[in-house]
Design a protein that fits this description.
With 308 residues, this protein is an alpha/beta fold. It is 27% helix and 24% strand. Bound molecules: flavin-adenine dinucleotide. Residues 195-197, 221-224, 235, 237-240, 252-254, 256, 258-259, 262, 272-275, 278, 291-293 line the site of flavin-adenine dinucleotide (FAD).
Length: 308
């Protein structure tokens, strides 16, 4: 039976949804929380959680986290370390793989304790992936697992914090938070995504209004992000984020393969496009052929009136 450790990335006082999803999937896995003032977060999780709580770990820098995880793996004999994909997780996982000379599999959607499963060839197939190293490191694809129930039993244990000199050489100079209202696209149950069919950047207000009415978040295609209509953090697709909400409403999006791979895991896809031959209609669950500028304001009104 694999002895599994899950990296619990946190933001302020909460563990990231993706990391909780990984912990929820593996009932026997332990968690590890690294930061400053994080003990109370660990206590709120009903599992055995290692806590490395130290002022030097306050900034979300990868190398000090690699130090903590590498020592835990060696001292406690963990043979599997799992992450939920994020910028920080990617750095920590890669650093840990180098430090432990361990294999690293990326973009996992499943793992049975021995073998993993991951999409390949632009998500056209799902393949088995394995490890030949003693320690297996895996990074789950964003949105691959539901947050689920992590309840179990366990205790909070202190992890030793012994930092290498080179790990402390980098310093976080500044950290800025993007202002955002409502849920992030990774966490949202409903996403309203806008494409070039919106016509101009100001028309993203249509997507924002509909998202607000539905309690969802706004996403975008690369075409509009590249054009500067919407921030990169909202881009869905091959070179953006992978999302899997319950409902994905695509406004003026053609449905290029590079966009599709980032949102095809959505439960229900609704597309509004004036071109009946747009590729998105090939994989949408519900398609509306028409001018979004006429349809979306009415749809938003309808959602609002139904809610009230
Ligand atoms: C290496 C690589 C990586 C890429 N990565 C990504 C990625 O991560 N994410 C991504 O999204 N793309 C990515 N792309 C780009 C991708 O190929 C497409 O160009 C892009 O997704 C198209 O965006 P779009 O649907 O907004 O625009 P378009 O393809 O121009 O589609 C606009 C759609 O709006 C419809 N429309 C126009 N007016 C209206 C109206 N009034 N009412 C209703 N519908 C209307 C049109 O019929 C059309 O279907 C990548 C491309 C490459 C080569």
């Amino acid at each position: 039976m694999a002895k599994t450790l899950v990296f619990l990335e946190h933001h302020e006082d909460a563990v990231q949804k993706g990391a909780l999803g990984v912990l929820a999937k593996f009932a026997n896995a332990d968690g590890v929380l690294v930061g400053s003032g994080v003990r109370s977060i660990a206590e709120s999780i009903g599992r055995t959680v290692w806590v490395a709580d130290d002022e030097r770990l306050a900034a979300p820098l990868p190398q000090p986290r690699v130090d903590v995880l590498a020592k835990l793996v060696r001292d406690e004999g963990y043979d599997t370390v799992l992450f939920a994909q994020s910028v920080l997780a990617a750095d920590v996982a890669a650093g840990l793989a180098a430090r432990l000379e361990a294999g690293l599999n990326w973009g996992l959607v499943d793992f049975d304790g021995e073998q993993g499963r991951a999409p390949a060839l632009q998500d056209t197939v799902v393949v088995d992936v394995g490890w030949s190293s003693d320690v297996r490191i895996g990074v789950f694809r964003a949105g691959a697992l539901d947050a689920g129930d992590v309840a179990g039993s366990g205790e909070v244990r202190d992890a030793a914090v012994e930092l290498e000199d080179f790990s402390s050489a980098a310093e976080m100079v500044e950290q800025a938070h993007a202002e955002q209202q409502g849920p992030s696209i990774e966490d949202a149950d409903v996403i309203v995504a806008g494409g070039r069919g919106l016509g101009e950047p100001e028309k993203f207000a249509l997507a924002e209004e509909l998202a607000k009415a539905l309690g969802g978040a706004v996403a975008a295609t690369r075409a509009v992000v590249d054009a500067g209509w919407y921030p990169y953090s909202a881009q869905v697709g091959q070179t953006g984020k992978t999302v899997s909400p319950k409902l994905y409403v695509a406004l003026g999006i053609s449905g290029a393969i590079q966009h599709k791979v980032g949102m095809q895991g959505s439960n229900t896809i609704v597309a509004i496009n004036k071109d009946p031959n747009a590729p998105i209609f090939e994989f949408a669950d519900l398609g509306v052929v028409g001018d979004l500028h006429e349809i979306v304001p009415k749809l938003t009104e309808l959602v609002r009136s139904r809610k009230s």
